[in-house]
């Protein structure tokens, strides 16, 4: 039974869902904050469900010997070392929609709070002061909101702001003009946004490009009296530079939910007038926490039970509906890769995958990952669909794919071509209606070979006696042949044989075959059926 650890404060709804799906679950919401205890325990688990407190470092991943999937009950995965997870073949999923409304609402609430200085006014009133004239605010109506990042949360913030009769400018390099029109926002460059906005709200992930994107220089380009809201990620804004701008009065107010260092016990922004701060509460509503807990538990369970991949950051998604149809083609792609991988000793320069016919309309990203994993599995048995593309990229292997309409007799086929410095190998295969993958072409020679756990592949000239020699040698050495396939390019020309064996051929059998001088190559192969 797969075993999952919940190491952050998730709604207990998740626990019930895991149990309903036949998954053993340990609910230890404090463990994420205890690095050493987590490190000692992580080896037990197939799945890990987290929020932002658990830091999934390369060290933790190295100890996670059974881990297959990490589910983030929320959006940002900057607390997970994605590269290390991918290299280890661990899928990282998030729940991109469960807390987006709640977080957008928090950004709007923060905008109101900073426009009307509500937290300070509230504290002052609680203190028995009646400072009516101290807290003069500004209206939002007709003001310009600068939206940095118009993804899921940014789009909701835009719709709410438009409802408040604000004008919305959006800076997002991936926002199309059509989508901007649909959202009712004006797409602008960052400098224009900085110069025109009365309020600026950030909704981008923290990446190499966005880290520290709001510097002292960017702040200097802003309109005097601007107010800045950050409910996205700490580290997007230079907190020291913002503190200076708040002190000089160039920036009239700031509302921050996220900080460069969290938990934030100190920040240059703390204790400045008209700075509203909350302790990373963007996603903290009952509704959002129910949503993300439910979704993450369903997604992790689906993956561990059925191989369905939803909302993965480091692997193409495979829906629960497509998993059964895609499964045999995933196997095929992996077998094609394994065939070439076992035949290739030299460094691989490139891999091309051609999808012909119906398979071209399937999830070719997932199939490509399976093919690459197959190729690399000969050298590294731990490689999988998550890690293979990362490892291939690290090794400088160029991966390309081609899709084409049905070009032959098969409704669907996949052809894999692998190039090394001095040669090219290709193999094609299909899936028959029985759901079993078949090899249909090797080196351009047509065959029809069912794939077995143990196979023997030989190349030879098309001369009499090959079948007899192969059959007799296997028989004399106690290896039963389940299936025998031959192919040739032309009479008397290049020929190949593929034997599906019940056991691996032993060294004596291989030596005997070699001694006949009939074969150019004799390769025992293994496949993970
Ligand atoms: N405070 C909190 O508790 C929460 C914070 N978040 C954070 O909010 C942020 C946004 O989340 P979503 O909207 O769901 O993400 P999303 O992926 O839907 O949208 C992000 C947008 O940023 C854009 N973007 C990427 N690089 C950019 C750049 N260099 N300049 C401008 N735009 C860029 C993307 O094109 C995309 O449209 C994330 O950082 C997430 O972690 C999310 C939930 C809760
Ligand atoms: O979903 C996100 O990206 C968040 O930042 C929410 O974080 P949390 O789950 O509240 O620690």
Automatic annotation (TrEMBL):
Domain D-isomer specific 2-hydroxyacid dehydrogenase NAD-binding: 108-282
Catalytic activity: (2R)-3-phosphoglycerate + NAD(+) = 3-phosphooxypyruvate + NADH + H(+)
Top-level taxonomic group: Bacteria
Keyword Protein biosynthesis: no
Enzyme class: oxidoreductase
Listed pathway(s): Amino-acid biosynthesis; L-serine biosynthesis; L-serine from 3-phospho-D-glycerate: step 1/3
Segments forming domain D-3-phosphoglycerate dehydrogenase ASB: 326-443
PANTHER family: D-ISOMER SPECIFIC 2-HYDROXYACID DEHYDROGENASE FAMILY PROTEIN (AFU_ORTHOLOGUE AFUA_6G10090)
Family: Belongs to the D-isomer specific 2-hydroxyacid dehydrogenase family.
Stated name of the protein: D-3-phosphoglycerate dehydrogenase
Species per Swiss-Prot/TrEMBL record: Paramylibacter ulvae
């Amino acid at each position: 039974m797969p075993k999952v650890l919940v190491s952050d404060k998730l709604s207990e709804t998740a626990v019930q869902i895991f149990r309903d799906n036949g998954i053993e679950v340990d609910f230890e919401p404090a463990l994420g904050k205890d690095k050493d205890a987590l490190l000692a325990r992580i080896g037990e688990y197939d799945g890990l469900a987290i929020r932002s407190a658990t830091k999934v470092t390369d060290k933790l991943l190295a100890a996670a010997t059974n881990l297959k999937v990490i589910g983030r009950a929320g959006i940002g995965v900057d607390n997970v070392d994605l590269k290390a997870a991918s290299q280890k073949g661990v899928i990282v999923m998030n729940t991109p929609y469960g807390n987006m409304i709640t977080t957008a609402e928090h950004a709007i609430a923060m905008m109101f709070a900073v426009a009307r200085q509500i937290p300070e006014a509230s504290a002052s009133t609680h203190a028995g002061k009646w400072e009516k004239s101290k807290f003069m605010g500004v209206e939002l109506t007709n003001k310009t909101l600068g939206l940095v990042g118009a993804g899921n949360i940014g789009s909701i913030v835009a719709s709410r702001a438009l409802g408040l009769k604000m004008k919305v400018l959006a800076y997002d390099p991936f926002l199309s003009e059509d989508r901007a029109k649909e959202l009712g926002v004006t797409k602008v460059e960052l400098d224009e946004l900085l110069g025109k906005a009365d309020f600026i709200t950030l909704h981008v992930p923290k990446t190499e490009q966005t880290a520290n994107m709001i510097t002292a220089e960017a702040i200097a380009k802003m309109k005097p009296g601007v107010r800045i809201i950050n409910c996205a990620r700490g580290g997007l804004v230079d907190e020291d530079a913002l503190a200076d701008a708040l002190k000089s009065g160039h920036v009239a107010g700031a509302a921050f939910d996220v900080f460069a260092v969290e938990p934030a016990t100190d920040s240059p922004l703390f204790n400045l007038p008209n700075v509203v701060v909350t302790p990373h509460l963007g996603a903290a509503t009952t509704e959002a926490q129910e949503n993300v807990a439910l979704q993450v538990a369903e997604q992790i369970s689906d993956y561990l039970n059925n191989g369905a991949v939803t909302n993965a950051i480091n692997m193409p998604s495979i829906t629960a509906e497509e998993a059964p149809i895609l499964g045999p083609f995933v196997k095929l792609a992996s077998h094609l890769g394994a065939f070439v991988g076992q035949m290739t000793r030299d460094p691989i320069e490139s891999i091309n995958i051609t999808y012909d016919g119906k398979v071209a309309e399937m999830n070719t990203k997932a199939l490509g990952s399976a093919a690459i994993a197959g190729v690399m599995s000969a050298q590294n048995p731990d490689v999988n669909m998550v890690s293979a593309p990362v490892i291939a990229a690290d090794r400088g292997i160029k991966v390309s794919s081609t899709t084409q309409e049905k070009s032959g007799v098969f409704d669907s086929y996949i052809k894999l071509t692998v190039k090394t410095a001095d040669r090219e190998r290709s193999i094609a295969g299909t899936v028959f209606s029985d759901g079993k993958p078949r090899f249909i072409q090797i080196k351009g020679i047509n065959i029809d070979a069912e794939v077995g756990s143990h196979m023997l592949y030989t190349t030879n000239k098309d001369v009499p006696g090959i079948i007899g020699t192969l059959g007799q040698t296997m028989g004399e050495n106690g290896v039963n042949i389940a299936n025998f396939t031959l192919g040739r390019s032309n009479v008397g020309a290049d020929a190949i044989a593929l034997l599906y064996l019940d056991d691996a051929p032993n060294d004596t059998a291989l030596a005997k075959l070699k001694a006949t001088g009939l074969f150019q190559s004799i390769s025992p192969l293994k496949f993970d059926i």
